[in-house]
Amino acid sequence: MPSPDRTDVGRSIRSRLSDLRTRLVGDTGDDESPVRTDGGATVSRGSAGTGLSDRLRSPRNSRFVGSLPFWLPPFLLMGLFVYGAIGWNFLISLTDMEGFGDPDYSTLDFQQYAELFGSEAFINAARNTFVLLIAFTVLCLVLGLVLAILLDRTLRLQNTFRLVYLLPFSLSFVVTAQLWAWMYDIDNGIINSVLSLGGLSPDWIGNPQLVLGAVIFALVWQFSGYAMVVFLAGLQAIPDEHFEAARIDGASTIKMYWRVIIPQLRGSVISALVVLMIGALKAFDFLYALFGQYRPAAGADILATLMVREAYSNQHWAYGSAIAIVLYVLALLVVIPYLYSQYRRGAL
Fold it and tell me: What pLDDT was estimated at residue 201?
């Protein structure tokens, strides 16, 4: 017969085992599976229930959900007023809407696009747009690069020259157009005042053979400072060791920039290229301010002026919408390669 002391010790041990079992099981029920495992980690039923509730609460507490109030409203507004408007414009281009009244969406076709690509006015405007786009962009890049290289070499008054070259970029198209309208004036313009000393007095903005070149020159004057700043930032980011290594190898200054320095400016070239090409496609403001009407002089008509003239002067809304869609596709052809290159570099 066990002694009373041994009986008390046995009760105490059973009591402690019961408490331990209660802690492991999580309740005082009769469940015979006190311990559960989940992926190797030993958890109790109570802790499993807590983990499930945490997982249910986690989407509400995640950073994505928390950031919704900040980006969702502008995202919806931009989708409605930008991409929704583009989609509506494309829908109108499929109708035959003219004059006042609502468009008829019952018959949609590509008749406006067929007329567009058969129109001589559209072909001329598209040709002028491409000439403006290519000539303006290339000249701005070349002039901006030359100015950046000259300023990158330790010149005195470097900041002053940088401000002088960048100042035209801060002007609006309206101010620039009025300035060059005075400069190009056939009778009182400063350019013809100088050329008249040699017996020359060309009509810069009235001659169809000269007007597009005069427009491109004025736009290059305004935007080359921007290209210079972009290239100058790229040059100053190149380590001095690259310049020193090229000099030690005996490379001349031209070879050093052509073979060593300029290839490292690929990112700057792409950034400046996209901004300049978009600026060329938006030259309507400059032409309207220069000529004071929707119809510029012969030889300077581009797709943007043709679009506005057809839509607001002639009220050919569907035809003007088709021209706007062509301009939008041109802008996409400029932007999409840039976005793809940024994606390949991991910048997106």
Answer: 86
CA angle 209, 211, 217 (to 5 degrees): 120
Cα-based distances in Å from 265 to 8, 204, 218, 236, 277: 87, 36, 26, 10, 18
Tokens linked to 64: 């994505």
CA dihedral 230, 233, 237, 238 (to 10 degrees): 70
Query: Where does the chain have alpha helices with state H?
Result: 4-25, 45-61, 63-78, 84-93, 111-117, 120-152, 158-166, 173-183, 190-195, 211-236, 240-248, 253-255, 266-281, 284-291, 303-308, 317-344
CA distances from 288 to 110, 126, 175, 208 (A): 30, 18, 12, 17
How crowded is residue 38: how many other Cβ atoms within 10 Å of its Cβ?
10
Query: pLDDT class for 37, splitting at 50, 70, 90?
Result: very low
Q: HSE-up of 201 (CA within 13 Å, CB side)?
A: 9
Largest separation between any pair of C-alpha atoms in the chain: 139
Return d(Cα 219, Cα 282) in angstroms, integer: 11
Token pair for 187: 């009778």
Cross-strand bridge partners of residue 41: 38
- The DSSP bridge partners found for residue 38 are 41
Rounded distance, CA 282 to CA 86, Å? Answer: 17
Q: What pLDDT digit, counting tens, does each position of 185-242 carry?
A: 988 889 999 998 888 889 898 889 999 999 999 999 999 999 999 998 898 888 888 8
Tens digits of per-residue pLDDT, 316-343? 999 999 999 999 999 899 888 888 887 8
Distance CA 140, CA 165 (A): 12
pTM of this structure? 0.73
The DSSP 8-state label assigned to residue 95 in this structure reads S
Contact 317, 92 (CB under 8 A): yes
Which amino acid does the sequence have at 93? Answer: S
Residue 159 tokens, joined: 């900041």
